[in-house]
């Protein structure tokens, strides 16, 4: 298996300073994607549900969760919900940070890891 | 002829405790997880254990991860072994454009002299070199500690190996006991053309005390438990080809079970019995196999002496710990490694502290996420494997005073041999049934 690069941030696109968070409904997003010029556009990011995946996931909580996903100490993150992975880490005595549990229990975050459903 | 004497022989009894909850999968939920989870659980538990053993082995050497290896630096690494096998069947072989000369039909054993071992942990993997580690002895899935150093070629030159060794054993008070016997049988294969119903009936009659004079009945009364270690029925392959069965074939399908149930009812009426599923029984394919459904045994399941158990099966009788399988784990080791005899494989699994190290690589197993149920935490007193070619047994001693009776239970339909263990001293002997008709 390939060793991960030391700089994890290289995986993700860097935050643009003037990006607005898209909170508009699905129909607006569709309109935005198809209107405009005829120049070939890169394909829109479409996840399983059919909705365009334009959320940026860059707030603090998401960063913390992403670091938790990527931490090899707690085992593979694919195919296991984050809360179960946290529970497993706790049971195996790995002392996962308690704040992860509180973020996950609050419920507004993705249940699966950042690869969830997208591998 | 003498009338039966007024005093009745009482069968001896033992206290029974089951430890099968570890192997039950009712509570597990499949959420699309892959096998990386069970490998992680296995590596984590075994590595923690090996780290605790390293100071007693070679305390002066640093322990590092595979990624932390430096060329020429002597150190200790712990990880999961992966054995690259040239002859291991690969699904891609069926699709390759150039068919190799080697036939797709599998040989009995896939060892090749070009096999090599790789050690892997979460950070990386490294090829293992040197002559200390012989690839034919090991299989993929074993977690061990290695002492050596990285060579300029990028491989790890192994100088010494540390296996986990026998797990700790709880002391049993064996001296003040009386003779109590446990009978093991496997491979009854009822329904197959080679099984002789008379032999199994003889076994049942002997155990239940319907054979022999008072002395022999007295011996039978000292049998406290029977364990049937898998492959109790064999369904003819022709019935399992996926076609809808005609009604007369349907009755052929259920006949072996009816016959088995009749026999088990006779046994259950007389003493406690455990029945484990095997590779030919109607249970799930992957390990741990779940208990055979009680509806298959309408007669015997009504008795509280009848217990349908998982495979692997772990239980205690009078505080003596028994652990064993129906044979799939050892049969898989036979295919992918070599040893002098089956008992050596059995002993290896104990030293590696894992019942079935080849799961999930070449032996099917359930994708557990949070634990590896095949890890052996506590050393059993009796460790058995069913459905082997012949009866073999050995007493193994551990470095900390552990003592284990290893038993290979032969297939009853082929050999007519059952195995009897005396709980007083863990001595073991064979019980052979045969039919000789004088001409």
TrEMBL record, chain A:
Query: Which Gene Ontology terms of cellular component type are present?
Result: delta DNA polymerase complex
Bias class Low complexity marks the residues at 19-29
- Gene Ontology molecular-function annotations: DNA-directed DNA polymerase activity
- InterPro entries, alphabetized: DNA_pol_delta_4
Pfam families reported for this sequence: DNA_pol_delta_4
Region named Disordered: 1-53
- Name any Gene Ontology BP term: DNA-templated DNA replication
> What protein am I looking at?
DNA polymerase delta subunit 4
Origin organism of this chain? Answer: Hibiscus syriacus
UniProtKB/TrEMBL annotation, chain B:
Q: Where is the DNA polymerase alpha/delta/epsilon subunit B domain?
A: 182-391
Its main localization is: nucleus
What Gene3D superfamilies has UniProt attached to this entry?
Answer: 2.40.50.430, 3.60.21.50
| Compartments (UniProt record) | Nucleus
Q: Which residues form the DNA polymerase delta subunit OB-fold domain?
A: 34-161
Keywords of this protein's UniProt record, alphabetized? DNA replication, DNA-directed DNA polymerase, Nucleotidyltransferase, Nucleus, Transferase
InterPro entries xref list:
DNA_pol_a/d/e_bsu, DNA_pol_D_N, DNA_pol_delta/II_ssu, PolD2_C
E.C. number, please? 2.7.7.7
GO term, biological process aspect, one: DNA strand elongation involved in DNA replication
Which EC class, in a word?
Answer: transferase
Task: Describe the reaction catalysed, as an equation.
Answer: DNA(n) + a 2'-deoxyribonucleoside 5'-triphosphate = DNA(n+1) + diphosphate
Q: Which GO terms describe its molecular function?
A: DNA binding; DNA-directed DNA polymerase activity
Pfam families hit by this protein: DNA_pol_D_N (PF18018), DNA_pol_E_B (PF04042)
Listed under GO cellular component are: delta DNA polymerase complex
Protein family (similarity comment): Belongs to the DNA polymerase delta/II small subunit family.
Give a short account of what the protein does: The function of the small subunit is not yet clear.
Subunit structure and binding partners: Heterodimer with subunits of 125 kDa and 50 kDa.
Spell out the protein name for this chain. DNA polymerase delta small subunit
The organism is Hibiscus syriacus (Rose of Sharon)
């Amino acid at each position: 298996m390939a060793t991960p690069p030391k700089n994890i941030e290289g995986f993700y696109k860097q935050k643009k300073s003037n990006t607005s968070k898209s909170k508009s409904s699905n129909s607006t997003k569709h309109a935005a994607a198809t209107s405009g010029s005829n120049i070939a556009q890169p394909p829109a990011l479409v996840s399983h549900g059919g909705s365009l995946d334009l959320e940026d996931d860059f707030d603090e909580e998401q960063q913390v969760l992403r670091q938790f996903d990527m931490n090899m100490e707690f085992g593979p993150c694919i195919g296991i919900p984050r809360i179960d992975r946290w529970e497993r880490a706790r049971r195996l005595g790995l002392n996962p940070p308690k704040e992860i549990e509180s973020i996950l229990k609050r419920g507004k975050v993705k249940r699966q890891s950042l690869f969830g459903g997208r591998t | 002829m003498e009338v039966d004497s007024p005093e009745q022989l009482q069968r001896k009894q033992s206290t029974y405790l089951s430890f099968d909850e570890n192997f039950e999968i009712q509570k597990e939920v499949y959420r699309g997880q892959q096998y990386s989870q069970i490998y992680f659980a296995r590596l984590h538990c075994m590595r923690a254990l090996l780290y605790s053993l390293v100071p007693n082995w070679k305390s002066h050497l640093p322990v590092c991860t595979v990624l932390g290896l430096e060329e020429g630096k002597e150190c200790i690494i712990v990880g999961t072994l992966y054995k690259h096998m040239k002859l291991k069947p690969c699904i891609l072989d069926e699709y390759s454009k150039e068919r190799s000369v080697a036939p797709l039909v599998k040989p009995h054993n896939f060892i090749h002299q070009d096999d090599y071992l790789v050690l892997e942990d979460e950070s990386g993997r490294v090829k293992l070199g040197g002559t200390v580690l012989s690839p034919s002895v090991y299989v993929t899935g074993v977690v061990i500690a290695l002492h050596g150093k990285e060579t300029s070629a990028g491989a790890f030159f192994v100088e010494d190996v540390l296996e986990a060794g026998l797990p700790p054993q709880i002391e049993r008070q064996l001296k003040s006991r009386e003779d109590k016997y446990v009978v093991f049988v496997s491979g009854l294969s009822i329904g197959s053309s080679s099984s002789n119903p008379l032999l199994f009936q003889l076994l049942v009659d002997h155990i239940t005390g319907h054979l022999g004079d008072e002395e022999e009945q007295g011996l039978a009364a000292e049998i406290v438990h029977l364990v049937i270690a898998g492959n109790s029925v064999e369904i003819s392959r022709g019935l399992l080809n996926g076609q809808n069965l005609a009604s007369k074939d349907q009755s052929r399908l259920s006949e072996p079970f009816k016959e088995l149930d009749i026999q088990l009812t006779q046994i259950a009426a007389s003493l406690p019995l455990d029945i484990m599923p095997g590779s030919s029984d109607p249970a799930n394919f992957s390990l741990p196999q779940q208990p055979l459904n009680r509806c298959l045994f309408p007669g015997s399941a009504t008795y509280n002496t009848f217990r349908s158990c998982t495979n692997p099966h772990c239980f205690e009788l009078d505080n003596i710990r028994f652990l064993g399988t129906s044979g799939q784990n050892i049969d898989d080791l036979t295919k992918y490694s070599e040893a002098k005899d089956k008992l050596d494989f059995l002993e290896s699994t104990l030293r590696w502290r894992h019942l079935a190290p080849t799961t999930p690589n070449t032996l099917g197993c359930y994708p557990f996420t949070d634990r590896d149920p095949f890890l052996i935490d506590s050393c059993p007193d009796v460790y058995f494997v069913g459905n082997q070619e012949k009866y073999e047994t050995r007493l193994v001693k551990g470095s900390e005073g552990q003592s284990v009776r290893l038993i290979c239970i032969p297939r009853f339909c082929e050999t007519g041999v059952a195995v009897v263990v005396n709980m007083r001293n863990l001595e073991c002997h064979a019980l052979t049934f045969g039919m000789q008709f004088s001409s």
